[in-house]
Structure formats: structure tokens, C-alpha cells
Amino acid sequence: RIQSGSYLSTGWFTLILAMDMCKEIHIYGMINETYCKY
């Protein structure tokens, strides 16, 4: 899988890496319940 380039091609590796390196991450499409409430 690594040689074919399909190893974790869905972005899970990037997500796991970001969770390990960053204190807070924002994922497109995932919003909290207070979003767009004024």
C-alpha cells in the first residue's frame, strides 16, 4: 500500500498528525452548536 501511494490517502494520517501537533484544530464541515447564532 505504501508503494502504490494509497496508504491512508483519505486524510486520516493528516488528521492524526494535526491532532498530535496542534492544541486546537478546525475541520471543515464540523461546526459547534453556537455557529450562526446571534
UniProtKB/TrEMBL annotation:
Belongs to the glycosyltransferase 29 family. The keyword Transmembrane helix applies. This is (spotted green pufferfish) hypothetical protein. It comes from Tetraodon nigroviridis (Spotted green pufferfish). It is found in: Golgi apparatus membrane. It comes from the Eukaryota. The keyword DNA damage does not apply. It catalyses: a ganglioside GM1b (d18:1(4E)) + CMP-N-acetyl-beta-neuraminate = a ganglioside GD1alpha (d18:1(4E)) + CMP + H(+). GO terms for molecular function: alpha-N-acetylgalactosaminide alpha-2,6-sialyltransferase activity.
